[in-house]
Design brief:
355 residues, seven-stranded mixed beta sheet, 7 strands
Length: 355
């Protein structure tokens, strides 16, 4: 996050609409794919030059243009010029630290949301910003360029003609893409739930410093999830109200279903946050209880040795005339007395349940 803030500082003093990529370059090459379809026809191809997309602008069929990689500024810029997008939209697309939001420009709708995945090596959450532009007969999506995405089921339905996506308009395609992203949240939450459950067991059995570090990592992930998902409720709610002419009432029903899913995701995240905070309290309580147990044992040992030290001190004084000093059974007798005193005290502590 500090590194991203430093990159954002490069725009300080520049006029609004200045096109600078803010974020990490996820891949060297930008991949552009175009899917054009209607109920009876389907076309999919990879584009080498962005100008090849311009021929799809005025076609009556639905066109989905997916740009995988946003570090080359000229690609979103040329698309924006062709389709008449506001310069601030292109600026937001190039800024990978956007908050999920929706902006209605009348002729098109601009949507920002976060695609989440789990890193297979570190098991940490990876976030990728997705920018969607919904028009009357097109959807343009911009991805940062992580390997793989969650849109493959949508692509497969388009190729095979299964479901309603080929029979509906561009708004239904945008719904399908958002639905794929939200459904993937449940997979992430399921993995996190398993991680929390495993961590709880370790916390109860062996609350070490490693467990504390994992708790703090989980707490940061929960904050990150909340930041990525919480604003999405407002975005889906606004779209579901059907105030835009680009979203048909029939699609609004499906958007309300996504809204319910989003509420479920947010509630689950809040539950996990409470659980992680409770785990931190349990860890601190466990450390305190362990310290108290150690101090209790040490106190009992010190208490047992107090009378023994007294007896040893008395008979260690250098007086010439002292009882038992000349007695041949004096040493065994004082050791026996010490043992008897220690056993009596241990029995007393056990009876009081202090030990």
């Amino acid at each position: 996050m500090p590194e991203l803030i430093k990159k954002r500082s490069r725009k300080a003093g520049l006029p609004p609409g200045s096109l600078i990529h803010i974020g990490d370059k996820k891949k060297e090459e930008v991949k552009i794919t175009v899917i054009d379809y209607d109920e009876g026809n389907f076309q999919e191809k990879i584009i080498a030059e962005i100008q090849e997309c311009f021929t799809f602008k005025d076609k009556p069929s639905v066109t989905w243009i997916n740009v995988d990689g946003i570090h080359k500024v000229e690609i979103p810029e040329k698309l924006g010029e062709c389709y008449g997008f506001h310069p601030l939209i292109i600026e937001d697309i190039l800024n990978s630290d956007q908050r999920p939001k929706m902006e209605d420009f009348g002729d098109y709708i601009y949507i920002v949301l976060k695609m989440l995945n789990l890193d297979s090596r570190t098991n940490n959450i990876i976030s990728e910003q997705i920018s969607l532009i919904l028009g009357p007969n097109f959807v343009i999506s911009f991805q940062e360029g992580h390997e793989g995405d969650v849109f493959n089921p949508v692509r497969e339905r388009l190729r095979t003609g299964k479901g309603k996506v080929r029979k509906m308009g561009a708004d239904y395609l945008a719904y399908s893409l958002i639905d794929s992203i939200v459904d993937n949240y449940f997979i992430i939450l399921e993995k996190l739930g398993e991680k929390i459950e495993s961590l709880e067991e370790r916390l109860v059995t062996n609350p070490t410093g490693n467990v504390l570090r994992e708790i703090h990592n989980l707490k940061r992930e929960m904050l990150f999830l909340r930041k990525s998902v919480w604003p999405l409720r407002e975005v889906i709610s606004t779209m579901a109200k059907g105030e835009s002419s680009l979203i048909h009432p029939s699609t609004g029903i499906y958007l309300r279903d996504i809204y319910d899913h989003t509420i479920h995701v947010v509630d689950t995240i809040e539950t996990f946050r409470d659980m992680v905070s409770g785990m931190l309290d349990i860890y601190l309580s466990s450390m305190s209880n362990r310290m108290n147990a150690v101090m209790k044992v040490l106190t009992i040992i010190a208490t047992i040795f107090m009378p023994l030290t007294f007896l040893a001190g008395v008979y260690g004084m250098n007086f010439k005339h002292m009882p038992e000093l000349e007695w041949k059974f004096g040493y065994p007798m004082i050791v026996l007395v010490m043992l008897i005193v220690a056993v009596i005290m241990l029995f007393f502590f056990r009876k009081k349940k202090w030990l």
